[in-house]
Specification:
Helices cover 54% and strands 0% of the residues. Helix 1 runs parallel beside helix 7 and helix 6 runs antiparallel to helix 7. The N terminus is likely disordered.
Length: 207
Amino acid sequence: MATTTTPLLRLTIRPPTTTTTFPLHRPFPHKTLTLTLKPRKTLTTTCSYSATPIAHRLISAAAYTLPLLNGLHYSRFLFAEYPSLAALFEPLFPLISTYRSIPYASFVTFFGIYLGIVRNPGVFADYVRFNAMQALVMDLVLVFPMILTRLFEPGGGGNGVGFKVMVLGFDVLFVGLVCSVVYCWVCCVTGRTPYLPFIGQAASRQV
């Protein structure tokens, strides 16, 4: 007789069936961003060009006549060697004669310009005051070579080394003076501001 064995418990193991759904599009809440643009403020910059009045130009140019008149004595050696150069200054000879015939003309003119123009900001514009002060500084610079010449007067007549150095110094100083004055005249007539190195800086501090 055959014996049949029946299992008491049948266990079936199957793999879990889990379904995971990945959304293709995940909706996000829409937010509204409101930008409030304020109207721009318009800044208007006006640049006006006002030409220098003719009267200011003439007064400024006339101020530079003072250092030229006081510096003409540095031209004695240059005019003696080249007499044709003296002919260029013949129109100034009547003015030079009148200027030198007045006692203390240089002293009075210097302080007249300083007190009457430079120290009068309510009457004269800064353009005139600067040019007047620059002319006075030029006039002061011309004093130092003359003081040095009188303190250390070169000897040996016209053949000494010291005398030749003095002649060369006078010639260079006079040529530089004439070039500076002409430059300042041209600038003043055209309405521009002449600015000489070092001299212009000293004049700016006083205006």
